[in-house]
Design a protein that fits this description.
about 240 residues, alpha+beta, Phage tail protein beta-alpha-beta fold, Fusion Protein Consisting Of Minor Coat Protein, Glycine Rich Linker, Tola, And A His Tag, Chain: A, Domain 2, 4-stranded mixed β-sheet, 9 strands, about 30% helix, about 20% strand
Length: about 240
């Protein structure tokens, strides 16, 4: 029986796990794997159900995993494939998975699940992976690519249109920060405003406007989410974003 354990992950967690997992399988995994959170097909609390059958590396499996909090998506992936995925719970916090629908090999499905999360899977054993952050240099190259820059422009235009269409949310008079999570179809599936404009009505209108943002285009490969936006007041003499020429 395997049990999940959550604690601070050391920087060399992946390297330690590669050495530890073969021994762990023969002893008490919840004590040795305390450096990572473990999500597996047979993680249980106090019962011992029959463990899920592990799929062969090239054996395909049908998956239906919608966009959702990453930890929940990994659990569904493990239940369907029998793969073990080790990860720092703090890494998963606030991240959304990508959608995985269709028939895939387990390795391919995990890679699809992680698109846009800023994380990647590294193999430890034949069926155990650890999630680690994508190197900052690689993320920087992706973020500055022309495709990504164009998509940021699309997001800016979509947010401006949504705020301008809301009676009490026209930009230019307030400041706020928000996080957006974007689905493969370009819809904003989740938004969270950070702080207040100081006016409850404006806060309400902004929240509603952000939920209506529709970009009509999928994020490019490797696009990091959530997207963080900052709206600031406009100074005197500056043309307001909603003013039409």
């Amino acid at each position: 029986m395997l049990r999940s354990a959550v604690a601070d992950v050391k920087p060399d967690c992946a390297r330690l796990m590669r050495a530890a997992v073969p021994a762990v399988r023969r002893s008490a995994p919840w004590s040795i794997l305390g450096a990572c959170a473990l999500v597996a097909a047979n993680v249980v609390a106090m019962v011992d159900p029959a463990p899920a059958q592990t799929k062969l590396a090239n054996e395909q499996v049908e998956l239906n995993i919608p966009i959702q909090p990453l930890g929940a998506a990994i659990s569904r992936y493990g239940n369907a494939t029998g793969r073990d995925v080790l990860y720092d719970a703090n890494l998963a916090s606030g991240r959304l998975s990508s959608e995985v629908r269709g028939v895939f090999a387990p390795d391919e499905a995990l890679n699809k699940l992680l698109v846009g999360t800023g994380l990647k899977a590294e193999l430890i054993t034949g069926k155990t992976f650890v999630l680690v952050p994508v190197p900052a240099s690689q993320q920087a190259r992706q973020t500055s690519s022309p495709e990504h820059l164009r998509y940021y422009g699309l997001i800016q235009a979509g947010i401006t249109d949504a705020l301008c269409d809301a009676q009490g949310a026209h930009p230019g008079r307030y400041r706020f920060t928000a996080k957006l999570w974007i689905a493969p179809d370009g819809a904003v599936v989740r938004s969270r405003r950070i702080g207040s404009t100081g006016t409850p009505r404006s806060d309400h209108e902004i929240d509603a406007a952000l939920r209506r943002v529709q970009l009509n285009k999928a994020p490019p490969p490797g696009f990091q989410q959530p997207v963080i936006i900052l709206i600031v007041p406009q100074g005197p003499g500056v043309t307001r974003g909603c003013d039409r020429p």
